[in-house]
Amino acid sequence: MFSFSSLRGTVQPELSKKLYRLIKSENNLISAHEEAGRQRVSIATQLSEWGEQTGDEGISDISDKVGVVLSEVGEQEDTYAHALDDSRNVLKTIRNIEKSVQPSRDNKAKIADEIAKLKLKEPESPRLVVLEQELVRAEAENLVAEAQLTNVTRQKLKESYNAEFLATIERAEKQIILARHGMRLLKLLDDTPVVPGDIRPAYEGGAQARQILNDAEDDLRDWRPDNVEEVPQQTTSSSRRQEHASRDSGYAGTQGTTTVDRDSYDNNDSADYIRDDTTARSTTQTTAPTAGQEQRMSGGSGSGAPVSDEELRGEHQVSSSSSPPPPPASLSEAGRSESLSRDVKGLFAEL
């Protein structure tokens, strides 16, 4: 079925297409875990209802208590799906950086192509000097953007999959806890065969069954990860719960509706940028050195240090009285390299 989200997928920049598809695939995985959790809860309810209609006190009580355990297993599956969604949202930061770097690459390639064409057509054209200067500036901006990309990519890749592995450990260990207590419940049910005409002893495990459920609840509440080195997360648990609560209000409905709503959220770039304050807000417009105002790229330095809002909003003013020296026919390779180095140092100094 056609949708605006599928249309957006076809117009992604080349640099971010693969990660865009990966994030979409993660969406399907999350939906599958959510559906598995719902099915587990539904099965637990059906088990309890079946046990009640058997008329056997022991079967009725144990099936009801086992249903409670299975229902909690389903809740753990849903919690895991939310953790996967958190991990997936971190990857969106890398995708957004890739989208912001692509115009910088394209601009540099466009200017270089224009210079090559002009050299063939008009080797003595005075416009060559202007284009050479624009190319130097574009290359300098691209170097800064590429540095920002590699820094953020490394940081966010570790953060994303560290969160996923921690969630996997938590889900596995909590489900083990529930499974062990479930087996304790089953031991309360006497399955000793009786011969026809004999009366089975009355079921007396009700109090023990309730205590087992209390033990399971206590063990889940007291659970802590053991010997796990966690990568520092920028999003706190309370803020994640608030995000899930607000996001789930838009996910309500059938599984198909859930997928569509999350797809819409995926393509809300403004929401993606809010999630991380280190996301680069780079400018790709390049001007000649004679322009009255110099555009610069926003983002971290090569060391990955964050930049303050005041610096991001700041602009480097170029004196209107300054003018470039009389240009030669074109910049030499050595001269262009020296100018590029000077511009890169200037950009990093500004940042």
TrEMBL record:
The lineage of its organism: Eukaryota, Fungi, Dikarya, Ascomycota, Pezizomycotina. This is Sphingolipid long chain base-responsive protein LSP1. GO terms for biological process: eisosome assembly; endocytosis. Residues 335-345 have a biased composition (Basic and acidic residues). Residues 280-291 have a biased composition (Low complexity). Keywords: Coiled coil, Phosphoprotein. It comes from the Eukaryota. Residues 128-155 form a coiled coil. It comes from Coniochaeta ligniaria NRRL 30616. InterPro entries: AH/BAR_dom_sf, PIL1/LSP1. One of its GO terms (molecular function) is lipid binding. GO terms for cellular component: eisosome filament; plasma membrane. Residues 220-351 are annotated as: Disordered.
